[in-house]
Amino acid sequence: MARIGYARVSTTDQDLETQLAKLKAEGCEVIRSEKISGGSRDGRTELATVLAFLRSGDELVVTRLDRLGRDTRDVLNLIYECEQKGAFLTVIDPHVSTRGEMGHIVLTVLGMVAQMERRFIKERQRDGIEQAKRDGVYKGGKARIDYQRVLELARAGVGASEIAKAVNCSRMQVYRILQPAT
């Protein structure tokens, strides 16, 4: 029986240290962590690794349920997958575990609250962006590709593959930039 910790933050500028310290204090022998959105399981390789290695009697420990996921159905599916392996899920704050029936009910409610909170966050973000647009201060997201450089290289006769390497993007992105210019 192993206690396996899982920590997650949504963005690279957020800090995992508090979660890691709590998981260590709970006696987790193994702790996996990642910096990725909890909106879905896509790209969450550390979570997939934890789930793949859970054995009967093991316990998956997270500091809060929203660290596991922000979609009720996904959280319930994760709990189900743990149970199918004979493993348990324990949330530190508030302390709830799937070892008892009451824990299932509480985790279902907490999963719904996490999903609702995510919707509120997105709604506030949308409202903030709309207000910033009305105030004329919204400039949009930071450009990840130097469009001017792509166009310059294309005018110089450089091929799409070489342009993609030069600006560190995919060929498809190069084609999308060049499409309106042609």
Automatic annotation (TrEMBL):
<feature type="active site" description="O-(5'-phospho-DNA)-serine intermediate">
    <location>
        <position position="10"/>
    </location>
</feature>
<keyword id="KW-0233">DNA recombination</keyword>
<feature type="domain" description="Resolvase/invertase-type recombinase catalytic">
    <location>
        <begin position="2"/>
        <end position="136"/>
    </location>
</feature>
<dbReference type="Pfam" id="PF00239">
    <property type="entry name" value="Resolvase"/>
</dbReference>
<dbReference type="InterPro" id="IPR009057">
    <property type="entry name" value="Homeodomain-like_sf"/>
</dbReference>
<dbReference type="InterPro" id="IPR006118">
    <property type="entry name" value="Recombinase_CS"/>
</dbReference>
<keyword id="KW-0229">DNA integration</keyword>
<keyword id="KW-0238">DNA-binding</keyword>
<dbReference type="InterPro" id="IPR036162">
    <property type="entry name" value="Resolvase-like_N_sf"/>
</dbReference>
<dbReference type="InterPro" id="IPR006120">
    <property type="entry name" value="Resolvase_HTH_dom"/>
</dbReference>
<comment type="similarity">
    <text>Belongs to the site-specific recombinase resolvase family.</text>
</comment>
<protein>
    <submittedName>
        <fullName>Recombinase family protein</fullName>
    </submittedName>
</protein>
<dbReference type="Pfam" id="PF02796">
    <property type="entry name" value="HTH_7"/>
</dbReference>
<dbReference type="InterPro" id="IPR006119">
    <property type="entry name" value="Resolv_N"/>
</dbReference>
<dbReference type="InterPro" id="IPR050639">
    <property type="entry name" value="SSR_resolvase"/>
</dbReference>
